[in-house]
Amino acid sequence: MIPALRPSYIQLLLALLLIGGITVPSTAMAQDVPAPAKDPASEDKIGFAAATVEYDSNSDIVTAKGDVFVDRDGYTLRADMVVWNRKSGEVTAEGNIRSVGPEGDVAYGDKISVNDSLKDGIVDNLLVVLADESRLAAHRGSRKDGIYKLDYAAYTACKVEGPDGCPKNPSWEVKAVKVIYDPATKRVKYEGARIELFGLPIVPLPFLSHPVDAKAGSGFLVPSVGFSRNNGLEVEQSYFWRISQNRDLTGAITAFSDAAPLGQVKFRSLEKTGAFQIAAYGTYSNRIDTSGAVVPAGNNVFRGYIEGSGKFQLNPNWSISASGRRASDRTFLRRYDISRDDRLRSTFAAERIDSDSYFSLSGWAVQTLRTGDRQGLAPIALPEIDYRRRINDPLFGGKFNIQANSLAIGRTAGQDTQRAFGSVKWDLRKLTGLGQEVTFTALARGDVYHSDENASTATVIYRGQSGWQARAIFAGAADIKWPFVGKALGGSQIFTPRVQLVAAPSVKNLKIPNEDSRAVELEDSNLFALNRFPGYDRFEDDYRITYGFDWALRKTSFTADVNIGQSYRLSNRASIFPDGTGLSDKASDFVGRSEFRFKDIIKLTHRFRLDKDNLAIRRNEVDATIGSRGTYVQAGYLKLNRNIGPTVEDLSDREEIRLAGRVRVARYWSVFGSTIIDLTDTTEDSTTLADGFDPIRHRLGVAYDDDCLSLSLTWRRDYQPTGDARRGNSFLFRLAFRNLGV
């Protein structure tokens, strides 16, 4: 028999509820805002169920058995048995204890005891599975004044069950004599902690702490260790500071055995309308002149680098963006392996975009890091204005595209150029009754240029004439495609012959400065373009016919795409294209592209250009990927034999090969490597010093990756010295733990 409901029985139910709260220490940490105020009347609303409930009046003990269930305010608790000793005030839950919090955290324990104050308690063999699936376990845990203390505890973010459902040991775990868990600060702090990797203790961490909710918290990050020919042994230690929910800052110090320490800081901010970030590096060290001088260019001078970027969407149409990069000298980035870029570009832009118009006000500047370039010849564009609008053609059903553009380029010690133009382009696409796709295009454009100090530009054909220059451009084109579809080789094929006619009267090209149309070459991507010069400063003025075909094969596991074409000029007008571009004669070279895919295992792309006279290979480019995500080989080969003289600086010939691969040797272990080799010799580039087999960079390493751990050791050898960025070997050891900072 059980006495009628009275306050003591309600206290028992409240005790059961508190047990549920004690076994879910992580739920308070997962909350970012205070819980809403509760109705006092709801404090007594408790869901409770059990197979049997017994009351011993002699000992004054209440016992609930058989799948005991307690539910209140989003907390649930299940146990085999709950015992309440009314004399001592002790409440105990035992057997298959499972508690779920509102945030989805699940806690398990063997035995839980709370005192009659319902505030402090003790848990044996506690296991908490957090919402992010990380785990915190302890032999014994206690709670006092809201703070949990766990004895002989362990933490890991690794899965303890494999894909086959069998138990597996975690790759890493943190073990400590004592763990203090404070829900108010949402952090776990350790005493006497160490990290065990594959069961072996590797790093003692006496001051370890980290957040246990899904959001990042402040703290030291895992250090990285490496070795380089430039700086010797290097150890980097970073600290992450979460300033607020939308801002953070990371600071790091890298110590070197052969160089002064390097400091770096990175700030990030996420605002309501956008985001931005700023990073800076700095150190004091000697700087070697990039010309190869023996005497240092700076003795213990400050060297550094700063970069930043950001974009803000002011409304659905308007946005502003900016990015900046600046280095103290030309070898700093390579010396400290921050970047291998040879130019640093800084930009800003204000843009407005809607369904039928586009406006941009932008600018950019370049810092050159090339050893042979003068900074004074690097361009500064301020401003560049571009406006475009699309209008439907009410007469023929086509579309008009109106564009207005202006650009001012200045140099501190070189040619200055200003440009403005306006254009109208009309396009009409029709399908005939025979299935032909016909596209008509008409273009009218007017340009105005002004330039000075033209003689400072080394390449004569880029200079143009000083002062004011104007020109008018008119062009028209008709493009016809006729696809044929049929069956082939167990699949379907599409064969599409294509012909294009272009007419453009003579244009004053060489009187105009050439700033943006220099790297021109015939290739498959621009074969049927109205203007095969990149940019606006040069326009292809001629009468020509271009012809070719596309062929595609589609099967269940295999696809093939092939195209090839040629262009023929219909007039005797002298070409403005430099020799070797494939467009300087009446008949152009043959260009094409082939791409083959077999499932997700093989992808092969081949681009080529063949000399029209003797079919000599002027461009041969191959990119291949073979394998799966875990094991694959990538190969790239490029040979440019365009027979262009050294006076055209943007079109030098070269030959190189690129190889990379990864082989999975076990479930989580893999070996990877890559290499770049310069195969250029003097027959391809008379200005080069390469001997036809000049390695650029080799890389080889071994890596381990699973759901919670990334581990790799990489060897790299650089063969191209630049200033104090010397050739030699580098080693990098990388160790990353998921959900853990040090």
TrEMBL record:
Domain LptD C-terminal: residue ranges: 302-669
Function: Involved in the assembly of lipopolysaccharide (LPS) at the surface of the outer membrane.
Annotated keywords: Cell outer membrane, Membrane, Signal
UniProt-recorded name of the protein: LPS-assembly protein LptD
PANTHER family: LPS-ASSEMBLY PROTEIN, LPS-ASSEMBLY PROTEIN LPTD
Subcellular localization, as worded in the UniProt entry: Cell outer membrane
Record family assignment: Belongs to the LptD family.
UniProt key word S-adenosyl-L-methionine: no
One Pfam match: LptD
InterPro entries given in the database record: LipoPS_assembly_LptD (IPR020889), LptD (IPR050218), LptD_C (IPR007543)
Cellular component aspect of the GO annotation: cell outer membrane; transporter complex
Complexes and interactors: Component of the lipopolysaccharide transport and assembly complex.
The keyword Lyase is assigned to this record: no
GO biological process terms on file: Gram-negative-bacterium-type cell outer membrane assembly; lipopolysaccharide transport
Residues making up the signal peptide according to the UniProt record: 1-30
Gene3D superfamilies referenced in this protein's UniProt entry, alphabetically: Lipopolysaccharide (LPS) transport protein A like domain
